[in-house]
Design a protein that fits this description.
By secondary structure, the chain is an alpha+beta fold. Helix content is 33%, strand content 24%. One of its GO terms (molecular function) is phosphoribosylamine-glycine ligase activity.
């Protein structure tokens, strides 16, 4: 008698996938913008770009993931925040060039579809899209039972935005004398977690305990979702114009100096003064357990998630606007002539408070 094979027995449960879609549908539909055509379930997401609204629109796109922060989410069995991280990583890259996020599509690969877990992940993605003003127009959940453990998953997303051709932000607009505005991070965001997890494991840190200086358990601190700056950055440009806001740098892998350097033109240098802010307690905890300062400043954002280069006479207005919108912000430095050709394009000076 021949053996009967089924897809479910091979590790792919179609019924579970359909139940996951049912559970996430309401959250996804809440992200809809007026330009969204059709609904969840089509083969492609449709978005009607109102070309009459723009003079010369440029489409911008960004793709990213969450990285090994997902391992902590699995360890703590909490899956409702990493979706917010996923959105933040792509939309805050988009807004760095001045683009308004329009829509996003996600990809979830997992060892086994647990409908409630997938729904929690996608509900987080939808929450992030709402914070960014972007529509979640579709995505894919792939069950890879023969490649991944049952509770294992990974996330990726692509977002598309739009910006006027004459309003693109970047190093071409940055001038000597510009003020460097720092916007506070909400934690480690979504970078450096391979190092964080290594330290936690080697030091035997208890994720359920509350370290000195923190007001919550270490695990909660480490799972704090990435701050989404997109709408705040767009608001700043709307008020100050491109004459006032010249560039944004999203502080991700490579740290504060490394990412700030990406928006500094040849011949200039961004100098950021550490004494204008305090190093976060969680970063100090990593340093207390063996991470050198130079390494933490390369691997972690060290309390700053986004940088803006603005005209010096608009710096106070920029800080006031961001603060009023609930984003802690301050003047962290300035752009000056780089007299030494060997000097880095961005440099941290002074000591943290």
């Amino acid at each position: 008698m021949s053996t009967e094979f089924t897809y479910a027995a091979s590790g792919v449960d179609i019924d579970a996938g359909e139940r996951a879609v049912t559970l996430m549908r309401a959250a996804v539909e809440r992200t809809n913008r007026p330009e969204v055509v059709g609904g969840l379930g089509g083969f492609a997401g449709l978005f009607a770009l109102d070309t009459a609204k723009y003079r010369r629109p440029l489409l911008a796109s960004s793709t990213d993931g969450v990285g090994t922060k997902i391992a902590l989410a699995r360890q703590l069995d909490r899956h409702d925040t990493v979706g917010i991280d996923l959105v933040a990583m792509v939309v805050d890259d988009l807004v760095a060039c001045g683009a308004e996020p329009l829509f996003l599509q996600d990809y979830v690969a997992c060892g086994r579809v647990v409908p409630e877990r997938i729904a929690a992940i996608v509900t987080g993605i939808a929450a992030g899209c709402t914070r960014a003003g972007a529509a979640l127009v579709g995505g894919e959940t792939a069950e890879h039972g023969d490649l991944m453990d049952a509770d294992e998953y990974d996330l990726a997303a692509t977002a598309v935005g739009v910006v006027e051709a004459d309003a693109v932000l970047g190093p071409e607009r940055v001038h000597e004398g510009d003020a460097v505005i720092a916007m506070a991070s909400s934690g480690f965001h979504s970078n450096g977690y391979s190092l964080v997890r290594r330290v936690v494991g080697a030091a035997g840190l208890d994720l359920h305990a509350t370290p000195a200086g923190l007001d919550r358990a270490l695990g909660e601190e480490l799972l704090e979702p990435t701050r989404i700056y997109a709408l705040d950055c767009l608001a700043l440009v709307e008020v100050l114009g491109v004459e006032g806001v010249h560039a944004y740098a999203h502080i991700t892998g490579g740290g504060l100096a490394g990412n700030t350097a990406r928006v500094v033109p040849d011949g200039l240098q961004a100098v950021l003064d550490r004494s204008t802010w305090a190093l976060p307690v969680a970063v100090r905890l990593m340093e207390e357990h063996g991470v050198p300062r130079a390494e933490s400043e390369r691997a972690f954002n060290c309390g700053v998630g986004m940088i803006a280069a603005v005209a010096p006479d608009r710096a106070d207005a920029a800080v006031a606007l961001l603060t009023a919108r609930g984003v802690p912000a301050w003047i962290a430095g300035t752009v000056r002539e780089r007299s030494d050709g060997d000097a880095p394009a961005a440099e941290l000076v002074g000591s943290y408070r």
